[in-house]
Amino acid sequence: MQASRTTLIEPITIEPHAQARAIYRKVTWRLLPFLFVCYVFAYLDRANIGFAHLQFSRDIGMSEAAFGLGVGLFYAGYMLFEVPSNLWLQRVGVRRTLLRIMVLWGLVSTGTAFVQTPTQFYIARVLLGAAEAGFFPGVILYFTYWFPSARRARITSIFMTAICVSGIISGPLSGLILHSLSGVGDLKGWQWMFIIEGLPSAVAGLFAYVYLTDRPEDATWLSSAEKEFLIGELKREALAKTERAQASIWVALREPKFWALTFAYFSVPWASIVVHIWAPSVIQKSGVTNFWHIGLLSAIPYITGAIAMYLFGRSSDRMLERRWHFMVSALLAALGVVFLPYAANNLVLLMVLLCVATAGYLGMLSLFWTIPPAYLSSTVAASGIGLISSLGQFGGISAPTAIGFASTHFGSNAIGLYAVAIVSVLGGLAVVLCIPARAINER
């Protein structure tokens, strides 16, 4: 009888999959919300220059060409320091890295309020790009310390929706500041905008140093069993990766498909620049003079874009088809941009076109990074993906420079917008014509 009682009283065990879900849910809720907010701040401080343009270009005597050059110089600083920042993160950890990055970019963004000449504006933009350079790739690297590859895709996709949230917040906030604070304390509205939107990033950097944990083994908020589980999962994945050859980056440079993917990614900043930088000016030229109203209107395309990004991603995942989804997104971006000059005096049509362009751009952005990992051979993926990201930033330099030059020398931004549409379509064609469907290996 005693023996039978003993067999009935057994310890309750947690089903392995349920245990894993619980642990990763705990890690996700600890890390992702804060990093998401930080990325919102990053895009806010990067893109608010489009609203400042409504006032400050006139104040410091800057032409459209000079403004476009200054916007592009952000990406020059970004490219130079993207890789060094990630190498530094590996050495000192994410807490110190984000402390440096966010405090510096917050202070540089705030300091932009006091530029008085185009040259000072150029310097501020280069410094902002250099300061922010390591944030996005650093966070992506940080995710590899906590999540295996099978879980990182969904974490990264949630993290990237911060771009949409930033766009939705940035317009109304920046418009309200320009409308309400101009002249307060002898400062212009655009000066208050840089100060109010820049300082929170610096504060968040200080909080990151206290709140974040560099690696699972350092997490006081995890139990010993939870730490062992995470470390074990990541070690098993690392062992599997060592079986793949890590080829020289020169192998990637010799593959035509690498250059096709690089050009496709180059086209994404071209599609984005109208949405992020020039949309407030386009709305103002349609006859909307109230900055608060401009800000509210500029948020609408991001709302529709967020919905489109979700629908594109869901359809692409369900069908396991990437190429034509990217092509359709590129066509939408081009369609929305190419007709903007003809809708200059029709606010309703203008907003519809901006919504279409934003949906296309965000679709391109969310779909692109599903293609290189599934297509590039394992021998070039490690080097190729990083190089595609760096070279693609030339799109961020060339697009605003081209639009600004066209606006100054031709008296209209139409030619620049046509160029954006052409580059977007060519980016889509580079994928569907140069990347065979049978070569994309996904299950």
From TrEMBL:
Topology in membrane: Multi-pass membrane protein
GO CC annotations, alphabetized: membrane
Identify the CDD domains for this entry: MFS_ExuT_GudP_like
Keyword Methyltransferase part of the UniProt annotation: no
Q: Where in the cell is it found?
A: Membrane
Q: Which GO terms describe its molecular function?
A: transmembrane transporter activity
The cross-references to InterPro entries, in alphabetical order and at most eight, read: MFS, MFS_dom, MFS_trans_sf
Q: Which Pfam families match?
A: MFS_1
- Keywords in alphabetical order: Membrane, Transmembrane, Transmembrane helix, Transport
Q: What is its main location?
A: membrane
Q: Transmembrane segments in this chain: where?
A: 27-45, 65-85, 97-116, 122-146, 158-178, 190-212, 258-279, 291-312, 324-342, 348-368, 380-403, 415-435
Q: Where is the Major facilitator superfamily (MFS) profile domain?
A: 31-439
This chain belongs to which protein, by name?
Major facilitator superfamily MFS_1
